Amino acid sequence: MSQCTRAMQAAQLDAALPQTQCTRCGYPDCQSYAHAIAFEQAPINQCPPGGQEGVRRLAEITGRPAWPLNAAHGEESARAMAIIDEQWCIGCTLCLKACPVDAIIGANKRMHTVLESACTGCELCIPVCPVDCIRMQPITGQATGWAAWSPAQAEQARVRYRRHMQRQAGRATIATVGPSSSSGPLARHHGQHEPAPGPEQPMALHDNRPLQATGAAPTKAEKHQILAAVLAKAQARRRAQ
Prior knowledge:
By secondary structure, the chain is mostly helical. Among the domains are: about 5-75, 3-methyladenine DNA Glycosylase II, Chain A, domain 3; about 80-140 and about 215-240, Alpha-Beta Plaits (2-Layer Sandwich). It has helices at about 5-15, 30-40, 50-60, 95-100, 150-175, 220-240, and strands at about 80-85, 105, 115, 135-140.
């Protein structure tokens, strides 16, 4: 199979994945997993959100057997949404940085909340929360896999992830080069806000390489603030018991 054919197959595979960007497959995002299947012969049964129906779809594209979902990567289950207990949220913003589709809104030292329509159930916000105030709530009843997740939701998640990555890249560029007062590309990040692409206008990638997550680590000052807030919340919990 030629490189061009593999690239076309990778695009087909990416379109067949649920775009939850959960990393359970062992890759940074859905596009990376699709690329690995097409170019590195990665197994096609490593996507729990897609479930067995997802494996069948990938098998149809690749011509491989539709093996049972690999339990080492998780089990097929109902789709869940992240719920933040606002009573214990300390406003550290770590979950905002961890969310691949920007489904959490909030500000530093302000309560955060989850946009139900945008949450993919990836669970990436849970391990970064220092006060364990995030839980997952199943919202699709008995429906699992693709029965609990529509193509329209997958496309919305894909677009939101592309926007997220574009913003991350813009911030990284500004941090490295510094703000520019010229009319060059960086000027768009300062006062000139171009509308983000809609579902009918997906962002064009410059090459076939998969996008990589680039969440910023908290600074030393932020860590001190987070620790102080965590201790304060812990003391409040002990007093409430």
